[in-house]
Structures are given as C-alpha cells and as structure tokens.
Amino acid sequence: MDVFGSFALVLAFVCAVYAFGGGIAAIITRHPLLIKSTRQAGMATCCLIFLATFSLEYLFFSDNFSIAYVVSHSNRDLSTFYKIAALWSGQEGSLLFWSFLLAIYVFSVLITYRNKNGELMPYVGVVMAGVQIFFLMLNNFVASPFKALAAPGADGVMNYVARADGNGLTPLLQYPEMVIHPPNLYSGYTGFTIPFAFALGALLARYPGEKWIHLTRKWTMIAWTFQSMGILLGAHWAYAVLGWGGYWGWDPVENASFLPWLTGTAFLHSVMMQEKRGMMKVWNVWLVFITFLLCILGTFLTRSGVVSSVHAFAQSSIGTWFVAFLSLIILVCFGAYLKNRDYLKSENQLDSIISRESSFLFNNLILLVSCIAILSGTLFPVFSEWITGDRISVGAPFFNKVNIPIGLLLLFLTGVGPLLAWRKTSTDSLKRNFGWPLAIGLAAGAIGFALGFRQFYSWICLVLCIFVASTIGMEFYRGAKVIGARSGASLVASALELTMRNTRRYGGYIVHMGMVFVFIGLAGAAFNRDIQKDMRQGDTLQIGPYTLVLQGFDTKPEKNYTAQRLLVEVLQNNKPTMMLYPEKRRFSTTEENGTMVAIRSTLQEDLYVVYAGTSPDTQLPVLHAYLNPLVKWIWFGGVVVVFGTLVALLPNRRAVLVLAGAEQPAAAARPMAHGLAPTVTLREGHD
Amino acid sequence: MKKQAKFGVGIGVIVAAMGFLAWLGYGESKTYYHTIAELETLKGSSLSQRMRIGGTVAPGSIRHLTGRIDFVLEGEGKTLPVSYIGTDPLPDTFVDKSQALVEGRPGPEGRFVAELVQAKCASKYEAAPGGKGSATPSPTEKSVM
User: Fold this and answer.
1) How much is the pTM?
2) Dihedral, CA atoms, A13, A260, A387, B111, nearest 10 degrees?
3) Range(s) of the domain holding residue A131
4) Which of A351, A403, A635, A648 has the least C-beta neighbours within 10 A?
C-alpha cells in the first residue's frame, strides 16, 4: 500500500505538471481539445491525491509499522477516531493533508465550472495547478509520508524492518477537538487558494467586469467559515487541554492562523465596494493575493518552527522551499499587476466621510493595521536577528495593547457600517438609525458603572456590544414589521421571511451578532481569577461563590492510558451542586502525561479546575481553580457566526424585486436611493 | 481634495495611535533569545535583560524544592542550572530529556531564574522516530520546538 501511495503521488505530480504546462499552451493556442485535456489532467491530479491519502490512512488502520510515519504517530491501541487524526499529526502527513484538502476544492471548482466561463477557467486552472505542483513536490521529494523503515543488516545492506508496535500519538493531540480543529483550519488555509486563483486568473486574462468576484464569493465565504471555526476550535482546545486557564496566548502558530482571517474578513467586506460602486479594485485584488500569501506563510510558520525555535532560520529543509514559493508568488502577483494594472481602474471616488464606503474603508484599514501588527510581532525574532544580530521576541502585552483598541473600533464599525447609506448619510437617518441603540448602550453602560464596573476596556466593550446588538435587533424588527403588516404573519415568522428573502444581508447581520457574542466573552477575561492550593482529603478551597471540597482520589485504567482523578465536590453558595473530576493521564506507550481539565461552564462563568500535579513540599495533590467569567459566550458566538455564514450562502427565497417593493417606504426615506437608481442589479440582494 | 485630507487625517490618527501602543507594548515585553553558550559571553547591562533560553533538560536533574524547582538545561555541550520560581504548574511535557524554553533573567552564581517554562509545543510536536530503539532519522526531528 505504501508503494501504491507513493506511486499515486508521483503520478499526481506528473498530471499537475501537465495541467500547468498544457494549460499555458491551451491559453496561447486556444485549442478546445487542449483546454479539455488540461482540465481533465487537473481532475486526475485530485483523484490521485485522494488515492494517496486513503492509502496512508489504510496503512494506519492496518497497523503497518514498517512505515516510519505510522510508527511515529500511531500504535495498536490507538482508537479509530485518532487513527484518522494521526494523518495530520506530523509534518509529512500534514503536508499530504494540505494537498488532499486543496484537491477537494480544485476538483469542485473544475467540475462546477466545466462548461462555464470558458475564457477565464483555463487561467484559473493553471494557477491552481501551480499551487498543487508546489505541494506535490513537497509530498514527493521533501517530506514523503510513505518512507519505510530500514536498517543495515549483518552484511551492511539496508533491509526493510517492521516494528511490533508504534510510538503512539502525542497525548496532547488525543482530544476530540484535535480531530476536528486541524481539518477546519487547513480547509481555511487551502480554501483561500480558490479566490486567489480566480483573482490572479481574472487579472491575467483581463476578464471583464466584476464577475470573478461573484464567482468567488461563496468559495471565499466557505474558506473564511472554516478558518473561523478552525481558530475557535484551536482556542477551545488550548483552553480545555493545556490547563493554563486561557484560550489565546499570541503564540506564533495561533497568530499565523489569525492573519489570513483578518485579511479575508477585510476582503469579504471590501468586495461590496467593488460590486456596488466599482471602487477598490486594486485593493481587492491585492487583499486576495495577501490573504493567500498569509495562508502559505501560516503553513510555513506552523510546519517549519522558524519563529518559536531558539535557533536561527530554516530549522527544517522545508523552510527554504516555502520561502522560495512565497517569493515566487510575490513575483508573479507583482508581474501580473504591473502588466495589467490599467484593467483595475476605479470608477468612483469617495464622496463623504460618513458613508458606507468610508466605513468599509476604515474597517479594511484597521483590519490591516491589526494584521501588520500581529505579523510584525510574530516575525520580530526573525527580523531583529537580521537587523541587529539579537533575536528579540515580543509577548502578549505587545499584541494586546494594539489589538484590544482595534477590536473595539471594529466592533463599533460592525454596528455603524451596515446602517450607513452609500455615498452620503444624512443627519436625519443617523438619528433614526442610531438614536435608540446609542441610548440603550449608554444606559447599560451607566447601570454597569453604577454597579461597580470599572475595567475601562471591558466597560467600553459592554456599551458597544449592547449598542451593536440593538442596531441589529432594530434592523430585523423594522424589516419584519413591514412584512408582517402586509402578510399578517407574526413578528418571528416575518423576521424569518425577511432573512430568507435577502440571505446575504441578514445572514451578515447574524454573523455580526455572533461577533458581538464573541466580544462579550472576550471582555470577561478582564475579570478572571484563580487560586491554587495543596489539598488533603476533605480540604476546601473557596473561589467566588464556589466551595471546592476534595472528596478523594481514584485511578482508572483505560485502553491507552491510566487516569488519576481527583473527586471534587462543588458547592455553590454552600449548596451541593455537582462533582468535578480533573484528571492526570499517563500514556503507557510514550510515558508522557496529559491533563484533563474539569470545567463547569455556564453563560455567566466557567469554573475551571485543574489537577496541577503533586506538591513537592507536602506530597499532596495540588488543585488549581480558575473562575473565568463569560467564556462560554465565545464558543456560542462562534456557532452563531457559522450559522450566519451558512444563511448568507443560501440563495434568496424570492425574486428580490418583490422585496424592493416591500421595503420601499423605508428605503425611500433613506438618501441612498438618490443618485443610485434602484435597478435590478442594485437590489439583487447584495447589500 | 478636502475630503481626501479628512480621510488622511483619520487614517493618520489611527496608524499613529496604534504605532504608539505597539511601541509601549514592545518596551514592556521584549525578550532576548540566547543560547546557553552565548549567555556566558554576555556582559554588563545585557545581563539584566529579560531573555529566553532553550535547551534539553538534563536527565535526573529535576529537583522539587520549597517554592522553586531546580533543573539543569543542556545545549551545545554547555550546561545551565535553572531555578523555576513561577506559580504555574510545569507543563506535562516537561520531563527528563525534553526540549524546554525558559524565560526570565540571569541570577546570582550563574543560576538562571525562570518565571516561565515551556516544553515542546503540541502543534509543532514530533515524536522523534529514534525515541524508542533506532529508526531512520527523519527531517521531522528538527521541527521539535
């Protein structure tokens, strides 16, 4: 099966090279048969990558311990669930998994548009094949996952050897989130290849109009959703597994996943400027380019360990390959841009500082500032070594100082932006749209202050969250009232109808609402508390309203590890509430330890209890308890964000001209109607 | 032109404010990376900087004492005695022969006082195939943090 797998990979490489070279020839000659054959070569590449991936999984499931990668990342007792995850638990497998996910995207694109956009698709196919060639080169020649174990025999000749059992999967990875977090994140990273291919293809082909933006919208949103889920699942994994009571530590690998999310978010917003007003064309193309570059950079940072390691550049040979690839992409993007930049001329200019356009502009600006700050902070050790010879890193205070104000500014724009009119907003409409939400927000702030809320940033965050939530609530209420008045349906049914009629707009609002929830959760971090104590049986520990009583210990042997548990009774305001079981796990194959945090999670706060080990002084178990307010809102907000994106991906229920009719009274009152004829294209549901 | 100037001012204010905050954060959290060998050659004020040092935990050197944990880091043939004085429990991955990063300042008598200890980070973790008996050396070994 390993021979089969490596053979499939070699063939995939050959097909990708054909799809690339043949594609270029097809673009030049415009020969229909050549176009068709390169498209099919692209599909064949994908199918061969699928086969290679399945054969590696087969090696895991058949416990084939003659393969180095299987030995390093699996053992016989490993459960089925984690044998699937073992695929992406190391370098070689992760890179194959990258190719695999990219192949899914490429295959879907090739099949979806096989008879459409004939002028554009050959270009897109060439770009996608180019990216695939790079990863297949790594899979084939640099980090092959199919290497067999070999040892010199008595005669000095290398012979294949097989182990009786493998080394097992790292305990830290043996958690359910670790099975779903990397596929999500990688689907995000790989998914941005598609908008990149379309943007670069359209630029090279001088493809007329904004069609490439319409074509890529759903692909970008899919990639963005995966990236969002990946980041949040990673944060949740860190929270539930690492046992330090937090979910985000500004670690280089975390930052790497956050960077393309920021530029991707900026892109999702600024494309609306291009669709509506024909502006920001250069900016949009570059945002896509940069997002893709950051995806490759993220993969590079994660895989090469260039930043977190103590030593200098290029820890593993993979680093050089990535640097070369990044440089090549930058060159190609610049070349394409310089050659065809006249094609990206803007059709309009900014009219007013209080308009939808300018809110998008500022949204983009601060997302970019945040991205640059995080990028420079992450790469600081590398750059400082180049410049001064000293390797200097910056920590959480650097990232927090910049990103907290940026986050709050962004939250503010989340509430304001969608309600500003295109071109220019009148004072009247400002009052009408923001009067009540502002009053509600400030009232909540005043109540909070009176109740002793004194954390500056958290207080601002509270006011803004309530303000933004009210603007969104009001939008739904107003629209639903209009529909309800016509159809006689209830308010909830009308709101649902409203959403289904313009999924993009109202789905967007739901995503914004989800972000508000995430911010509520983040604001709670200012109030985190923790306490640590050596516990004798029967001892108690007090944190907030909770009393923790250590009732005893037990040991639970499991298939792959032995768990030592503390039996902790939780009393809330002196009433018995529940039992918590924080664990230490000892993994038999690797002789390593793992921690299992016990969490009692409510919307109000998390009681987070860690078995922190044995005290060296007293030989007693150490209990470390954290009280983290509002954390659950972050995960809840994430679910809402994903739900909102899915809504936005649905097609609108009815011809939107009907909606334009229904919304006419409200729309007419807004100045946005002036100068922008409410044509069919305008009201296509793209606000 | 006037409108563009307005935008310019808005953008300028945001960028300048963020730059200032970044500079504050930089001053507060900058940490120098050094190897154990470099630490011996440092003099004067550079000895009072906050720094981060990596190495391998010498087998059998971890000793739990009252209020601190002592161990020895090895690297490039040199050794460095370390006292960990932080309050957080050490990570589960911190054991004999594990790769560790310590963060803190050099203390008296050549002993490094660490406030933070990290051991092999999960996302970059690679079990060296040579860990159990011998196996083909793999390039992945190097990606251990």
Assistant:
1) 0.87
2) -100
3) 1-174
4) A351
